[in-house]
């Protein structure tokens, strides 16, 4: 570069420094920035603009210009690299590398990372042929103490980009990169090991340790361990995993990878695995040897637990032989109950669960570790009793509180041990009796609440839940005794003035509510044992419990937790009373009438409990023998109105109650339909009004969606009782609702679901329903699907078409009485052929789109149609569709567009071919090959000779088909 050139580059640099500073000035106008952006874009299009960029990097300190120059270089490397001369490429590469080496202490870290990324991007395409010194550059940096971190950044990014590159790299090139990279791994690992051995001599040893182990951690996700994890390297790494920091987490991540993989064990492999197993337990010993483990971060603890889990699951035999007395389980036991973080504790419990699962068929181990497992139960029981300190109010996405999760996970472990040693169920009952007797004593003498903290009632909640989980291990007599005790306490606990309503400290009130609700909930799981117990029934215990439950549910002063528990128990108590309703009619009527006549609104109950009460009330109303049908219809009509006080705006509870109360007898469904018919008529009227409404469109759509959901659920429930006239009005309303198709996708989907139900359930005599549904689908919906305007409705539309073919087959193929007896499969006379053709064309079209869910849905549909109605064998299908369908499905296999469904596609092709194998092999396949593009004639000849031999056995057919489509695909690529 001569002096004149330097002046030009210097002036250019200063000019762009000023422009970029102004560009990023907050006071610059958008118009000015737009003009500058045009200049910047023109700069990037200039020939050899990269030379100016290199000059900028070497001479400028303006960070705006430095990043601008790097971005221009990135654009050139990604888009214009192949157009540059080899000499220019080499010059640019060396310039970038030299900038990294010379100025890595001057540039910000993000800029150095950017330059490293540029060189790795070049190497992805050019190394080793056109970038032969790439690895030499990395090695040069690694062996220089001042530049070792640069070399490690290079190596880490190379590993990431070479082994898991973006999809823009061809498969062949990906393979070349990995093979070439592997050749240099031994030398690189030797350098990395030396760096680790000598890092303690440097001032930034922690930084170097972390960077080296990060590289190893990444590489060991893909490297073959058999060749590269040597005993020497292992002994270099092991000491670094004991001190909790980022380096140790990297080390343990490596060991976790090694232990998790499966590979043939050589002598070295066995040594390394056994060393890692023992090393894992030394880590655990280190952690539990410290009085407090709060010094250990959660991240470190999690990775230790992960390794521990892998070691115990995969290397049980080694551990069982090495630790003769089960010391490893003793360590696990201590480690488990040193966990302060609940998530870590749960992961330890998961390890125990995996142990019990693995030991189910190892009786010698079950007996050998009996003492340890029983110790585990004792420790878990102690842990359970700390439940009171855990949040029991905030509910997660699954509707569980932290406390519920905590109890369930601990009780699951006790259940697992009980499966191995049923004897542990007995002391659980003994403990429970101690706790329950304390509670009974307080129930009988409430003044003892003053010393409540000293009682053992505190443990009654987890003990009762544990007892219930082990119910399968008790004899029937014990089960009945426990259930009777629960029943008595449930009645006493809420019958008079409940303990939790007495003036006691808030913490005591909370515990008393938990105890009583747990007893009620537990009773719901044991109650079935008393349903057939004569003595229990004679003592009128069921009536007493029923009265207590209903009274409690009516009492607005009761806590929500008690209401919810009563709501859970109510159905199990009521069901036997409804079966023998004549004995209980007056009691049921007396106690449930406030719910039926609306004098109690139930607004004080949560949604689930409210539903339970209303379902119980409705079942009584429908079962009650004392009313004539007309009166029952009127009463039911009024009751249903009370469930939807806001009319069409409040239909969810009404439908939930009706659906949850089923199944119903036919006579009962008739009564329900008569009672609900006014609501159905009002719903259809609303949909009609929707077409002429001038009010807010969004408000109308939202209301109409609720209405359509109601109509859908009611039709599914009551379709066989609905009058044909009502269904006809409903369908005509759908036909007239043109604006719905463009106004609401969800509304359209609901409408299609209702139409599908109508087609499925309507009688053979109502052919007009089928005709209307087909007309609606073909004339109004299929054009929309073809234009892909409303993709979410496509699945529902195809389901409607499937229902038309599956359930209204005779609409197209009317059975001939004279032929059906002699030739049951030859009903080939077709009616409504144009509609049938259009439906199959639309289904066939779905096999050419990329939506795998629609493809799978329709492939399954045509297969079911063939199984039910012999679709592929119909002359009409064979003439017009057989070859088209097979062609489309073969193309899908050749193009591998739905690989996950290969077996299902092959089976469908086999079923189609099987209706005429001679046609398939002698005519269809040769014609298919003839029409396949990008295949030479000699390749077609080879495929005809090797892959088209007539085979009728399914397994061989599918294998040959897979080979054929693979050969076609390879031939097209060549």
UniProtKB/TrEMBL annotation:
Q: Which GO terms describe its biological process?
A: protein export from nucleus
| Highest taxon in the source lineage | Eukaryota
Protein name as it appears in the record: Exportin-1/Importin-beta-like domain-containing protein
GO cellular component annotations, sorted alphabetically?
cytoplasm; nucleus
Q: Which UniProt keywords apply?
A: Cytoplasm, Nucleus, Protein transport, Transport
- Cite the Gene3D superfamilies for this sequence: Leucine-rich Repeat Variant
All copies of domain Exportin-1/Importin-beta-like, residue ranges: 108-238
Q: Does the keyword Lipid biosynthesis apply?
A: no
Asked if the keyword Glycosyltransferase belongs to this entry, the reply reads no
The protein's matches in SUPFAM superfamilies, at most eight in alphabetical order, are given as: ARM repeat (SSF48371)
Q: Where in the cell is it found?
A: Cytoplasm; Nucleus
The UniProt similarity line reads: Belongs to the exportin family.
Q: Output the Gene Ontology terms for molecular function.
A: nuclear export signal receptor activity
